[in-house]
Amino acid sequence: MKISATLLLLFSSLTLALRAESDVRLLPDGIEVSCAPRSLTNLTSCFLKANRIFPSPGATKRKASSKDTPAVAAHPTKPDALSGTTYGDEKGFALKVTNSIVKITLRSQLIASYHYRHAAIRRPFFANFKTPDGIQVTRNFPPRSGDPRDHWDMHPGLSLGFALVNDVNFWHNKEGSVVHEGLEKIEAKGGEALFTATNRYLDDTGLELAREVTTYTFSENSDGYLLSLDIRLTASKSLEFGIKEEMGLALRAATPITVKHGKGSILSAAGGIDEEGTWGKVDRWWDYFGPIGGRNAGVQLMSAPDNPAVWSHSRDYGVLVANPFPVDNKANRGKKVNLARGETLRLRFGVQVHDQGTRSIYDPTAAYKRYINTLPESN
Question: With a cut of 50, which residues of the chain have pLDDT below it?
Fold first, then answer.
């Protein structure tokens, strides 16, 4: 072991020396950084890790699972043509478009960020939802000290994702890419703001499977504000949606209001409580809430009446997914939901961000009725 470690140290030192003089690379990118020769033990560990990542050509290969399949390169997304523009003002909602984000403010308070392009996450998402007074109700993105780091790139805040479409995974950031095509119809004035985003669902070869056009509408109300999503997913070719937990609109609650890591609760329209009483059950709404910042705040996901039956993949650790496909159980796993080429799947959801002095002040049933009343007739 001593001889082996010494040889590794000498080889690493030679690599670093050569790099200082030329562009010759004896090791894969990044390995020399993680394998700086601080100690023989660390160096050996790093080289062994490198060998697992870059095995020799003759190494025995096992069949990869969906969890360890190497990620294919994400298809690039360019800055939006509207980058650098701002809509609205400090008196109400404002939308500021940057080269990767739409920043949403309410009276100059940043309340959410819509990331339409990101280096690690292969689909658009919202991050860091805050109440109008600045209390954060989704997990910090990226996670901070005190936050669990699990699934940080799969549960960034609020996002639409599908783990199985024509056997392509658009959830785990390894295969499919949801590529931003453009923003349009951007408006912000007083207590309302909206924008429409168009996205393309591409497999790892660049083949377009579907096109999504979603309008996001923010409206202030007495409990905080409502985000309404009107999603239209049109099949570019015949689609088969598989049965998975990870399908639909996903929320990751702030750590202090989770059941497992904080003092929070999950409540459903039918009266189900927490994971045990809500997971796998079809319902109209689910509220993830708890004490935070001296207040009681949370996020309520609501399904429009004209959606397919929606069930919740709800976990005490903080994730809540409104899933419009059959429940992920043994009886359903062989089923498929088909969408013919040119056919459109329309989904509408409401996301109510709420903040009260005590829980008893907030009425989630009334909030749902208010959301229903805001819905325009289907068109």
Answer: 1-68
